[in-house]
Design brief:
By secondary structure, chain A is mainly α. Chain A contains 3 helices and 2 strands, in the order ααββα. Helices cover 75% and strands 9% of the residues of chain A. Chain B has 5 helices and 4 strands. Classes of the chains: A mainly alpha, B alpha/beta.
């Protein structure tokens, strides 16, 4: 269906042709972007799933260790032991640009370089179970950070892919066909105008010719009428 | 310089304080929403939330999905794995592709 309310002029036709060209080019570029994003996204999503399963497994076993640790000492002792942590994780966020999506890269820095600083308590009143539990959490931490990075990237990329996909579809199924239709409509209308002008010219020419012929005839008759007596005389 | 927070019920998260993450124990979803809203506006780059708490405040979690920082990541609590984290990964694929073509048969 051609656009309603369009001026069938040569200027409008040129404008629409330019628009069609831009739309086609844009469509091609966006399609390429979508395909490349999709390829990277699928790899990332697989990695995300694998990491998530690993982390969930790790946290589950760490939680079990903590339950065991809690069982073997009083709650007050446990709370006191973990009350004042010595270690602190600092996070540096840098950004990487993947097909115009800014995805985060995380880098952690431990406040204290001593890796034994995760044990924020004296060993006199706590059991070895607690040490094991804390160790297991500490072991899973790098994977948790990695998981955060990958999962956030996946979320951002999924949103971008959805947006790009919509744009590609809108161009492919709405903008481009509609512009083509309108171009067709305008060029047909222009051709029609041209034909009607030509016909009008032919008609005018005919009329002029007729008029001239009538005039000539009239002239002939006049000449005959005027000249006949002369020849007769 | 960013920090990392863990939000959830106390029993599920107290262990994380030992390795240097900031813990924010909450009792209900209302409190959780307030905390998350406050943390997302400050210097936290990653916020881990227990699946159980996240399931009671889906709006806040969904809002932070499209924000670049912080990353809100679901983790299982002591009460066990609800599968919400795995569901989130599937949701991403569904959003991007249109249907879950990677993990559709996984359960």
């Amino acid at each position: 269906m051609p656009q309603t309310q369009v001026n069938p002029t040569r200027m409008e036709l040129t404008r629409l042709k330019g628009k069609l060209k831009a739309a086609t080019k844009g469509h091609k570029l966006l399609k390429d972007k979508r395909d490349e994003l999709m390829r990277q996204f699928l790899d990332l999503a697989r990695e995300n799933m694998a990491l998530r399963q690993k982390v969930e497994e790790g946290i589950k076993s760490a939680n079990q260790n903590f339950v065991v640790a809690k069982a073997s000492m009083s709650e007050a002792t446990l709370n006191t032991a973990l009350m004042a942590p010595k270690q602190q994780v600092n996070l540096e966020i840098s950004e990487e640009n993947v097909m115009s999506v800014e995805i985060p890269k995380y880098e952690t820095k431990m406040e204290s370089a001593d890796e034994n600083d995760i044990y924020s308590y004296g060993f006199a009143f706590t059991t070895a179970d607690l040490d094991g539990a804390v160790r297991s959490i500490s072991d899973i931490l790098p994977d948790m950070i990695k998981l955060a990075e990958v999962e956030k990237s996946c979320q951002l990329m999924a949103a971008e892919i959805e947006k790009t996909r919509r744009r590609v579809n809108a161009l492919e199924h709405v903008i481009i066909p509609r512009t083509q239709e309108t171009i067709k409509y305008i060029s047909m209308k222009l051709d029609e105008n041209e034909r009607s002008t030509q016909i009008r010219l032919i008609k005018v020419k005919d009329m002029l010719l007729n008029k001239t012929r009538d005039y000539d005839n009239a002239q002939d008759i006049y000449t005959i009428e005027v000249e006949t007596p002369a020849t007769g005389a | 310089m960013y920090k990392i927070a863990v939000v959830g019920d106390y029993a599920s998260i107290y262990g994380f304080s030992s390795v240097g993450l900031d813990i924010y124990p909450v009792k209900d979803a209302k409190e959780g929403e307030d905390i998350i809203r406050r943390l997302s506006g400050s210097q936290y780059g990653i916020i881990y939330v227990t699946e159980e708490l996240a399931s009671r405040m889906p709006g806040e979690i969904a809002r932070l999905r499209s924000v670049r920082t912080p990353a809100v990541i679901l983790i299982p609590g002591v009460s066990g794995n609800t599968g919400a984290g795995i569901e989130g990964v599937k949701l991403n694929v569904e959003q991007a592709v249109g249907s879950d073509i990677l993990f559709g048969d996984m359960d």
